[in-house]
Amino acid sequence: MPHHCPSGVFRPLNIAVLTVSDSRGLDEDGSGALLVERLLDAGHSLAARALVPDDIYRQRAVLSGWIADEAVEAVLITGGTGPTGRDRTPEALRPLLDKELEGFGELFRQLSYQEIGAAAAFSRALAGVANGTLLVALPGSTGACRTAWDGILAEQLDSRRGHCNFVALMPRLREH
Prior knowledge:
Structural class: alpha/beta
Family: Belongs to the MoaB/Mog family.
Pathway: Cofactor biosynthesis; molybdopterin biosynthesis
Function: May be involved in the biosynthesis of molybdopterin.
Shape: globular
Largest sheet: 6 strands, mixed
CATH class: Alpha Beta
CATH topology: Molybdenum Cofactor Biosythetic Enzyme, Chain A
Domain MoaB/Mog: 16-160
Number of helices: 6
Distance between the termini: 33 Å
Number of domains: 1
Mean pLDDT: 92
Strand content: 15-25%
Helix content: 25-40%
Organism: Plasticicumulans acidivorans
């Protein structure tokens, strides 16, 4: 159940969306489209959108550019988080992270379990922070992206939740 800690002021974020897929283009990208629709409907801005094959180095190239871009505050990645040999988004992302936020993956799998049962155990969804940028890697299914947005991200990316959201932490993410 969401915990409300209202601050009253909404701060839109600049969010980039990366789809990782070997089998579809942007026109067939339902997951990325859903994330773009949800973030825009919530009042955020789309900072950038890209689609790359499930190749570690191509993912890292795009992600590194967005991490270095101070205008990009969050990145939502869809695809490449499964257990198959081609699913390598976690391996591409982890070396770029300053800190992994283990609770995100745990919570996502808990929510997924309620919807798809034990198959949720095969998800390698994760989140972390790099250079003050939030990065979230989700499965490539539209349903999984909907679950993540509706169950976690909508609340955590809403500044009106006061100290109870990720936006409240953003000013302190670059502290050393």
